[in-house]
User: Fold these one by one.
Assistant:
Number 1:
Amino acid sequence: MTDGAKVRLDKWLWAARFFKTRALASEAIEGGKVHVNGDRVKRAKLVQAGDRLEIQLGPYEHVVLVKDVSEKRGPATVAQRLFEETPESIAGRERVAFQLKAAHVLFVPETNERPTKRDRRKLEDLKRREGRA
């Protein structure tokens, strides 16, 4: 679109493929999961190139700078040109993903049963990686 063009926030989030539908985008905005330039806003807020968006999707937070605006949802390659994610945001998402993965590996259900052979192998593997074996 042209310079100085503005688009509703819910339309932009949908066009940039952060949400599958405008209804889901609107719900996230009203739930306080989307901030524009640090402020909580309504779905009709007009965004333009240069705005900074903070979008909370599940455990992940995306901090993006709006590079262009569009009211139409196109292919993913076109949607990626609408924004640029900050390096801090990328690093934060990778850190959260690692923590979630590590928490899943370390989770051992509490039971009164003996560990299976598979459970013992996982424990031995974990100890070997930590240098305790």
Number 2:
Amino acid sequence: MDFRTDMPIYLQIANHIKERIMSGALPYGEKLPSVREYSLEYEVSPLTIQRAMTELDSEGIIKSKRGVGSFVLVDCKDNLEERMVDRQIEDFIAKMRNVGLSDTAILNKVKGALEDE
């Protein structure tokens, strides 16, 4: 995974795990890989992975059980999807405003793109 410089690595990892949960690659109720396994996968320290897992736990996405592992919470689906989509929309709008587009222009561009599909 290529990490960006504008966001802490542990948050990028947490977001990537959330995306994997939403896509079904990490099913609801499933046990997640261990901190050590994630550390190897993402090529970061176990402490960075632990911070990502703590973040996911505090957001109610996973539940960690000492000595057993971390599990994707079954009832986090709706909340997770809503937050992830809202964040993507907010980021998109902010980027479009940063390049000088008005809200009307942003809306027209989105409508046009949807019509082209």
